[in-house]
Amino acid sequence: MSPNITNNYIFRRFICGLSKTQTAKLCFKSVKTVEHWDRGRTIPPECKRLMRLHTGRELNGVDDQWEGWEMTKDEIVTPAGQLLNADQVITGTYLVSLNYEEVRLAKKDALKFSRILCGRRNDSN
Description:
The chain is mostly helical. Helices cover 53% and strands 5% of the residues.
């Protein structure tokens, strides 16, 4: 039997890519509750947010510093649209951990530049 196509069903299945079982487990609800949502019953805002966070659709809900950041299946997308894969993040983390003077200065300049691009003040060094 084909499900009724509602906005909730489209959101859960196609936008978030979650099965009924995955959604129920993620939101601490029953599969029957998820089926009610699929038929049009209102999804609680906290459950919608969990679904978006889980599928990487939203990072700005974590902290204000993540505003404009997104995740794809295997990359982080910066507010400027740059794609970062896991190797790049690990390499950057390693370089910053070295704390050489050149790296420290480059980090300071990079953060300053990225904040300008994001339209945020330079609150910290």
